[in-house]
């Protein structure tokens, strides 16, 4: 027995130990106690709740060691949240492998609002949480979007507080959905307060959420947690020995005898807080009777559902134990607390200590008993059977594999991966065990768990698996590296995978390898992959024919064969229209890429637009990201810069949520260009920095050329001509200054312009001459137009300048790039103004200004207006009386969809936002543009959408 003996009442250990209502530990506080030493943290909570009540969604992650007071702080937030709907979830170690368990607990109280969630999102959520029958015909991302929509619907009725404790044990699917909503809700009255143990959260889990780190208490604060009359030296020794950990102080104080309390007897040797707590809990658990210890072990192994708790009671009764008496005893010793009719551990560390101290035979027996007591269809039953297994168990392994398949149907790929990993360990056949481990790696890939994929694939490769299994594992790892890791490593893995696979997996591996090599500008390697695909593709399989046509056609185009290449790429579009492939978003992606090589961008966008919307509706975000990036490039080329900004920004945001690198860097770089053209210079700098970091992570060195051109354009927009020179002269030294698509001296147009602006005319003329030498008359019309623009800028007399301008305009009329054509007019008009020909200058400057304004490129149009004003003309303002400030990418996105006549709820569903966020963005658009009605908005954005998308 302990020195104090078993308490006879149901008071909390804090109240028993101190005689005052002081709480600063990780236990759940009773109403009314004073929270000790957390004034700054309470102020942070009040601010969080006040912001949410005012319609500013905020999130906060409370992080700290066990016992430092995270749970207590969450309880304090709940007591402060007057007028809030409080939704709670708590991670339980026993349920960490059950897909969406945390989300089910959190959202169950608002299930009645699911009718207000967009249909596809509601279907995904209903399938994931078991609220509706049948599989989810959607991507797991929609579960996260539905979580956001459901919370937003509840927030329409009043403020909401989301409390999630022990985040480290919340299943991955639930944690991802909660964090997505926390990051993406905007002007919604929702507060998120999350808590997790330090060092247990993956690096990506709290990203984008501010962290509040809880430390230990100082001696003056700790006084309130120790028994009255504790000597000051004892107090200081306890604070030093526990690091000021509140729960450790409370537990140590409870077990001090009188001599130790006054300093007459030595204290136990100092231990780290976690170790100290475990030792204290072991002493308490040792005081329990065998029946009560059996009860708390069963509870520690169980989930929190009604069926789980009923199973515990069933097992106890079957073994002759009175459950009520066992609970009363455990509660009397402070091991358990009562929450209504349920019992739970007073602190998660007690649960951990129970499990650590249980012997293997005891654990096996308990798991077996719980499995027998649970209903046949309960998801935890197979896990208890697996935990009770002491060797290989083929029947249990098969049931786990079936359980994984069910998780996969419900979009629970992380849970499926865990089930397959355990199934592999229980499978006696080594080949089947390896195959299940490879499948676990693939599910981890679909769940976005990068570290787990790598670890599982390493195990497959180390276990002497069959060639095809090793090949499938390497295909998974290579695909992961291409999108979220290192592209050079991707090539290595996919090359090895291709040597091990046959049939359709071989074709997929070769196609992925070809794309990875393309990202690295390895043209020869791409062509080799294309030849290999042609040699092995099954002509009766539409998917394999599609991959062969795409890779073969691109290889021909890269080799300069403009006769044989286009027909093969045309076959891509025909095959993608076959019924078997029409619903496959990958086929749409290849169609868009093929169109980029043949120049049929407008036609491809016209055909692909409804299918892009279908990809969006299904929430297949992994493919939506590259599709949006490709469409952004096509829209920019066609002059639809509002659409390009919208698509590039959305691709960048979604790629960030997915952890993509290679595709993300392209989207972020395009966003930087668009931001600079609108005068959002700080945003452009930040985007460029992010694009460079993503490129470094992906290892896509081939992106350096066009990234430098984007950086130079951004510098030009902010009038940093020395910056333009620094960036582009460095490229001259590296690769001779090739352009974005490898054209010789592609840096020349921007660098010549910067040289002229800095008065370095000799350098400008020399570079313009070299550019003309390496650009033959048969070069693409845009290159020819830019050569003439360089001659225009460096002309020695007016006649030469006029002739160069006329030649540039003629070439621009063939090369469809209205932005560059307008820039040529802007530069020519500026030259005329400086030469004193103000009337002539106005025509060209006004034309350029109108083009830039139609593209919503506010910085470029403002510059043209400034040049016009310098001629004595009156600058034209937009229609309306708005601020004429640049729109952000998200505002542009919302405006374009509103211009199509969509409602706020429809826009929110399409962009994975809340209706309030859409409303805020529309308000900004109306204010900045001076609109009074949606009709005015629609008229403006129809104009700004540029030429018909069918133009190619």
Automatic annotation (TrEMBL):
GO CC entries: cytoplasm
PROSITE patterns referenced in this protein's UniProt entry, alphabetically: HTH_LUXR_1 (PS00622), HTH_LUXR_2 (PS50043)
Annotated segments matching region Disordered: 1-35, 868-888
Annotated ranges, domain HTH luxR-type: 880-945
UniProt keyword annotations, A-Z: ATP-binding, Nucleotide-binding
Descriptive protein name: Helix-turn-helix transcriptional regulator
GO biological process: regulation of DNA-templated transcription
Origin superkingdom: Bacteria
């Amino acid at each position: 027995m302990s020195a104090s003996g078993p308490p006879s009442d149901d008071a909390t250990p804090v109240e028993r130990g101190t005689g005052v209502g002081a709480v600063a530990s990780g236990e759940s506080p009773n109403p009314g106690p004073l929270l000790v030493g957390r004034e700054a943290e309470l102020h942070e909570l009040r601010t969080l709740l006040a912001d949410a009540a005012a319609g500013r969604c905020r999130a906060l992650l409370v992080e700290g060691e066990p016992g430092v007071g995270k749970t207590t702080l969450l309880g304090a937030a709940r007591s402060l949240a007057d007028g809030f709907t409080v939704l709670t979830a708590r991670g339980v170690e026993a349920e960490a492998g059950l897909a969406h368990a945390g989300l089910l607990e959190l959202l169950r109280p608002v299930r009645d609002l699911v009718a207000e969630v967009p249909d596809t999102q509601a279907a995904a959520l209903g399938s994931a949480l078991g609220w509706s029958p049948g599989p989810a015909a959607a991507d797991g991302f929609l579960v996260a979007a539905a979580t956001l929509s459901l919370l937003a619907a509840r927030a329409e009725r009043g403020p909401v507080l989301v409390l999630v404790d022990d985040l480290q044990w919340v299943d991955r699917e639930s944690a991802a959905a909660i964090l997505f909503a926390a990051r993406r809700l905007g002007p919604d009255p929702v507060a998120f307060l999350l808590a997790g143990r330090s060092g247990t959260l993956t690096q990506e889990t709290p990203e984008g959420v501010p962290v509040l780190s809880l430390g230990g208490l100082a001696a003056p604060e700790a006084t309130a947690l120790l028994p009255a009359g504790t000597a000051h030296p004892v107090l200081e020794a306890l604070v030093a020995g526990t690091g000021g950990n509140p729960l450790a102080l409370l537990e140590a104080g409870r077990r001090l005898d009188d001599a130790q309390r006054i300093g007459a007897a030595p204290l136990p040797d100092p231990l780290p807080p976690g170790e100290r707590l475990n030792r204290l809990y072991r002493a308490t658990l040792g005081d329990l009777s065998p029946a009560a210890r059996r009860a708390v072990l069963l509870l520690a192994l169980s989930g929190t559902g009604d069926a789980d708790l009923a199973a515990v009671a069933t097992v106890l009764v079957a073994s002759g134990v009175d459950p009520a008496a066992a609970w009363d005893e455990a509660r009397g010793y402070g091991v358990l607390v009562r929450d209504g009719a349920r019992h739970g551990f007073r602190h998660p560390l007690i649960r951990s200590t129970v499990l650590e101290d249980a012997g293997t035979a005891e654990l096996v027996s308990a798991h077996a008993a719980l499995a027998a007591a649970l209903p046949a269809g309960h998801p935890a039953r197979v896990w208890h059977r697996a935990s009770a297994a002491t060797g290989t168990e083929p029947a249990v392994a098969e049931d786990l594999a079936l359980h994984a398949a069910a998780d996969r149907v419900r979009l629970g790929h992380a849970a499926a991966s865990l089930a397959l990993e355990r199934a592999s360990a229980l499978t006696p056949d080594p080949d089947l065990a390896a195959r299940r481990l490879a499948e676990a790696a693939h599910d981890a890939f679909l769940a976005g768990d990068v570290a787990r994929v790598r670890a599982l694939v390493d195990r497959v490769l180390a276990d002497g698996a069959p060639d095809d299994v090793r090949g499938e594992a390497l295909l998974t790892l290579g695909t992961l590296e291409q999108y979220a890791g290192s592209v050079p490593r991707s090539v290595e893995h996919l090359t090895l995978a291709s040597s091990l696979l046959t049939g359709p997996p071989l074709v997929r591996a070769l196609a992925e390898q070809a794309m990875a090599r393309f990202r690295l500008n390895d043209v020869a390697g791409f062509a080799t992959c294309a030849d290999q695909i042609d040699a092995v593709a099954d002509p009766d399989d539409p998917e394999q024919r599609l991959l062969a046509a795409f890779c073969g056609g691109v290889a021909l185009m890269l080799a300069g064969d403009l006769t044989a290449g286009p027909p093969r790429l045309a076959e891509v579009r025909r095959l993608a229209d076959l019924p078997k492939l029409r619903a496959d978003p990958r086929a749409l992606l290849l169609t868009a890429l093929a169109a980029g090589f043949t120049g049929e961008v407008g036609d491809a966008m016209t055909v692909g637009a409804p299918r892009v919307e279908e990809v969006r509706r299904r929430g297949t975000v992994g493919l939506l990201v590259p599709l949006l990036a490709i469409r952004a490039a096509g829209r920019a080329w066609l002059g639809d810069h509002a659409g390009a900004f919208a698509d590039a920004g959305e691709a960048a945001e979604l790629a960030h949520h997915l952890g993509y690198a290679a595709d993300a860097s392209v989207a972020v770089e395009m966003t930087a260009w668009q931001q600079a053209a609108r005068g959002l210079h700080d945003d452009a700098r930040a985007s460029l920095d992010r694009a460079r970091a993503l490129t470094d992570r992906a290892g896509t060195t081939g992106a350096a050329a066009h990234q430098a051109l984007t950086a130079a354009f951004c510098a030009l927009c902010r009038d940093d001509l020395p910056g333009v020179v620094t960036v582009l002269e460095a490229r001259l030294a590296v690769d001779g200054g090739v352009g974005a698509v490898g054209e010789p001296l592609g840096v020349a147009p921007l660098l010549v312009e910067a040289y002229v602006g800095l008065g370095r005319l000799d350098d400008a003329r020399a570079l313009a001459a070299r550019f003309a030498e390496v650009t033959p008359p048969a070069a693409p019309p845009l290159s020819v137009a830019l050569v003439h623009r360089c001659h225009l800028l460096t002309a020695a007399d007016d006649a030469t300048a006029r002739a160069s301008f006329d030649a540039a305009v003629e070439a621009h009329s063939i090369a469809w790039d209205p932005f560059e054509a307008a820039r040529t007019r802007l530069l020519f008009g500026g030259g005329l103004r400086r030469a004193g020909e103000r009337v002539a200058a106005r025509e060209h400057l006004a034309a350029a200004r109108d083009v830039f304004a139609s593209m919503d490129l506010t910085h470029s149009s403002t510059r043209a207006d400034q040049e016009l004003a310098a001629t004595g003309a009156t600058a034209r303002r937009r229609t309306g009386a708005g601020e004429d400030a640049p729109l952000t990418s998200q505002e542009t996105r919302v405006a374009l969809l509103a211009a199509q006549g969509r409602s706020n709820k429809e826009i929110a569903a399409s962009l994975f936002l809340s209706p309030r966020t859409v409303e805020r963005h529309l308000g900004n658009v109306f204010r900045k543009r001076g609109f009074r009605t949606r009709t005015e908005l629609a008229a403006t954005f129809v104009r700004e959408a540029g030429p018909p998308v069918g133009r190619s």
